[in-house]
Amino acid sequence: MKQTTSTILMIEPTGFGYNPEAASTNSFQKESRDFTPSQIQDIAVLEFRNAVAELRNLGVEVITLRDPENAGTPDSVFPNNWFSTHAEGQLVTYPMASPSRRKERRPKVIEQIKNACGCGEHVMLESFEEQETPVFLEGTGSMVLDRVNKIAYAAVSPRTNVEVLQQFCDRLGYQAHTFKAYGAAGELIYHTNVMMCIGDTYAIVALDTVAVQDRQKLRDSLSESGKEIIEISKEQTYQHFAGNMLQVENQLGERILVMSKAAYESLTPLQLERVQAHNEYLLYPPIHVIEQAGGGSIRCMIAELFKKV
């Protein structure tokens, strides 16, 4: 069992932009006063293609798909929220809070993912959307997975429901570790992966966003599972997406920590020294427009493809 993969999926957007439907629970989204919707889409495509090129230049296998024209899916550049794959052979699809995001679960894409990974089991959790009171779990946005130790870390929020989380854990053999984490305005942080990243030998986490009563338990769990804890601050999390990182590897097995340029530039020399000790490369493409309009960063743009072993 490995924490990282060298194969990823990224979705090129055709209608990217600020999504009011999602903004009610995502305080990281900002409406642009500098660009028109058309300009935002054009810049997002440039940012996307540059990020793909930089990943490929370092030897990561990047499978890209393009969203259909006029699909009505402004957040499709963030595919890690609606599906995940697992080396035991499962493909999991998730219940999404925003109705427009449910359109991203297209059968053709699901079949392509199954074929790429050799998935033999499809765990479908989206039925939780259809309950009288719908509840949600938005993939590896809602959960940060320690795949080796089988722990699913989850900051509870309107998009991260404990009942669905437990269903995921029961089906895939994970242990749930829940806590509360708060945003700049005191709201529950909508996705765990904006304040936390788990690599093979380390964890980057904004512990000062975590409720005081949950903080030590989280620290202990990470330490006991063999992770060096690298702390980032609230300000780095809220303003620069510093928690939204992902460790991948290339075809040579070299470790790469991927973050945005904004996140990289927010790190202190000591933080950089500590993350560099765990990785052969740091990669930090600029994705400013995607971050601001979409409310997510580079980790959200990368869906890991774990091939069945």
UniProtKB/TrEMBL annotation:
InterPro entries: Amdntrnsf_FN0238 (IPR014541)
Pfam families: DDAH_eukar (PF19420)
Domain of life per record: Bacteria
NCBIfam families membership: citrull_CtlX
Name the record gives this protein: Amidinotransferase
Organism (species): Pontibacter indicus
